[in-house]
Amino acid sequence: MDFKNTILIMTSNIGSSYLLEGIDENGEITEEAKNQVMEELRLHFRPEFLNRLDETIMFKPLTKDNIGNIIDLLVTDLNSRLAEKELSLEITGNAKQYIMDHGYDPVYGARPLKRYLQKNVDTLVAKLILAGNVGTQDVITIDVEDGKLIAKA
Question: pTM, whole model, 2 decimals?
Fold first, then answer.
């Protein structure tokens, strides 16, 4: 076995602060920001390692629309799991905004958002189910009340 036809994709948050601040009015990464990120990479990795990389790609920070779409995908995934119990989940607009505001960290991308949903939304849904407060075909709604997320059937 050899690695002749293998593609390795490695990610890093090195220089992400420069990328967050280095977006121009057209939504593109400025040359200055690219140079700052590359300098940061050179400080963290040996030249021998960087020289072996075929390409370095810089990603633009996620927008609010991107975050909203990611939340929709995560809720769809949760709904597919709830379908086994003949339940479904809806998130109100207020709850979605609350999740965006509290679960997204621009420095770390979408990973904290997924953990936030698991810790908060999944837990609320599970507690409602375990308490016996939902029945077959019920729709569980996640909303915001008194400054926190709530679940109701």
Answer: 0.70
Residue 131 — left, alpha, or beta (φ > 0 → left; ψ -120 to 50 → alpha)? Answer: alpha
Residue type, 1: M
pLDDT tens string 57-81: 888 878 778 889 999 999 999 999 9
* Residue 145, beta-bridge partner list: 148
Instruction: Report the distance separating Cα 139 and Cα 132, nearest Å.
Output: 14
66 to each of 4, 17, 33, 69, how far by Cα in Å? 35, 19, 22, 5
Amino acid sitting at position 145: E
C-alpha–C-alpha distance, residues 6 and 80, integer Å: 33
